[in-house]
Amino acid sequence: MKRALFVILFGLAAPMSHALDQASPCTTVEACIALIPEKDVPSYSNGEADEAVKAQLRAFGRDALEPLAKLSAHPNSNKRQLADTLIADIKDIRQSDFELVRQVIQNNVKLDGSGGWAYRLLGRMGGDQAVEFLVSELVREGKGGNQIVFALAKIGAPAIPHLLNAMACKNNCTPESYAGFQEVFDELHQLEISDQPSALALLALAKNNDIHPDMRKLALEWVGYITAESAPVEAELIRMVKANPELSEHVLTSLKVLKSPYAADLLVAKLAQGEGLHREWILRDIGHLGHTAKHVGAEVEHYLNAEDWNTRAAVARTLGFIGYEKAAPRLQTMLLNEQDWLQVHAALQALHWLQHRPALDDIEYVATSHWYALVRDFAAVTAQRLRADQPPLEKDAQHYYSHRARNCSADQFAIMAEPEQIKIYDREFNGLNQFSYKHPWCADKEAAEADEYLTEFCASLESMVQPNVAAKVGDSWLTGTNNGEWGGEMMAFYKDGSHEQVLWTNIEDIYSYGSTAYATTGLAHLGMNNGMLYRATEIAKGFAVEPIYRLPGAPMTSWKINPQEILINTYSGPVIFNPATGLRTPDGCEVRTNVES
């Protein structure tokens, strides 16, 4: 019986073994290497061979390291580059293999100028030898490169002392030598490393006048990310920036990470110089400091008077973030803003985070009366949580970025044609020749002459702009261009033959109502989805142009649906504009807001 069972098992095993042999094209490392074809491949190639050969070489693991390492000096590019790729995949690498891996990298550098993929192996290997070599390569390359940066970030905290030693270079160090350090630190700070000795060493570097200025600045920027005990580091950073105001930008990075109150002082001082998106970023940074920045609340509140609507919304959210209760009455009045739903939304967020119960009646009014469902829904959630004494929702939730209309299509609305006497479109995508003009960039002759690129552009035919749409308003014409992320403008053409720019933004369309026009504008690009409706009114000389309503998103298309009303089909769904009554959502449209109570 035993013999019979043995025969059966042997009979089963033999075919399986034979099948494996058949599937594998080679049984030794050397035999597999011999099957790698000699061919020329591009410098960016990972090398080419039969997939079964590559799989078998990977299966050998560390046993294939030495034979593959010899290929790194092979004159054939395919053999060399495939060997490098396979070596980088070895998982069971040991620190004792360092010399072999270094030789592979040095061969790659000698033959191709690049160390290749093998740097990754050093990241998994770790150890002083690997780190020292990687840091020396970082300096030699003058840039991090994906693989060196990956390897040092993989090693993590143990790499920091070696990086600091290299940063302390006093001789023959140039900005180019240090270009890669910023890349490494950008990766390392995401690891949330706390290393007080290294933090103090960085401070010492930053104070050392013998160290290259670029490295001193980098030390100031990065010290906050690894500080374990913030008090002594924060105090020294504040002392340094007070003594050397020119260092404020670099010190600020660390002070923000440490959530220092002094960071708020530095940031609020920058608000006066900032504008537009830059000012919004400053306000965002102040908000991230939380209640630490509460003492600058009055200075932040001042910017609720800003002309820019986005700034006002950013200020409102910031005041809520930092817990500045004194701004609550002013924020409450923002709930009555009929033009900008985003300012109302931001005020709701701020009052929500401030837990300002006196605003409940106004919040509930917004929840039942606002034209925009997204704002109504958030107001309802805010009122509910305030009444129940529940904590506010997550501060960083930006629901208005992702909202989309559903169960609603703009296609249901008829298109009312506009007479060509008052509206002309560029139907053939050739531009409206009769309204062509020199690009506004070329209007400032001194600036154009000072910039070589601008000089060349303004001298070319490309600088002649032909708009996409033109509308007759009173005795003049308004034209619009829309170049997506490259911007656009609205120009006024007067009956005396002169013209001027009256608005700088992407123009989707212009609608004439006698001596007044309404322009649908905006941009949807990457994470942006912004739309605005402007009113242009003919005055004694030129036009007065002002924003009158924020749209739910950038307009894709728009058209008149009757003599008075315009359907605006935005990326966040359609809305209807009536000059007499404002914006409204078409009947039956819903909006997905993702606001949870």
Can you characterise this structure?
The protein has 25 helices and 17 strands. Helix 4 packs parallel to helix 6 and helix 10 (160-167) packs parallel to helix 12 (196-207). The termini are far apart. Strand 10 (516-525) and strand 11 (528-538) form a beta hairpin. 45% of the residues lie in helices and 15% in strands. The protein is α+β, with helices and mostly antiparallel strands and 597 residues long. The strands form 5 sheets. The chain has a 5-stranded antiparallel β-sheet, with no helix packed on it. The radius of gyration is 33 Å and the shape is globular.
Helix segment count? 25
Please list the strands of the largest sheet in the order they lie side by side: 2-5-6-7-8
Strand content: 5-15%
Radius of gyration: 33 Å
Mean pLDDT: 88
Number of strands: 17
Q: State the low-pLDDT regions, or none.
A: 1-22, 396-402
For the largest beta-sheet, the strand count, sense and barrel status come to:
5 strands, antiparallel
Protein name: HEAT repeat domain-containing protein
Keywords: Signal
InterPro entries: ARM-like, ARM-type_fold, PBS_lyase_HEAT
Signal peptide: 1-19
Describe the structure concisely for a colleague.
It comes from Pseudidiomarina fusca. With 597 residues, the chain is an alpha+beta fold.
Fold blueprint:
Blueprint: H1 2-23, H2 29-34, H3 51-59, H4 65-71, H5 77-88, H6 98-112, H7 119-125, H8 128-141, H9 145-155, H10 160-167, H11 179-188, H12 196-207, H13 213-226, H14 230-243, H15 248-257, H16 261-270, H17 276-288, H18 297-301, H19 309-321, H20 328-334, H21 341-354, H22 360-369, H23 373-387, E1 404-406, E2 423-425, E3 437-438, H24 445-450, H25 452-458, E4 464-465, E5 469-473, E6 476-480, E7 490-493, E8 499-503, E9 507-513, E10 516-525, E11 528-538, E12 543-551, E13 555-560, E14 566-570, E15 573-578, E16 582-584, E17 590-592
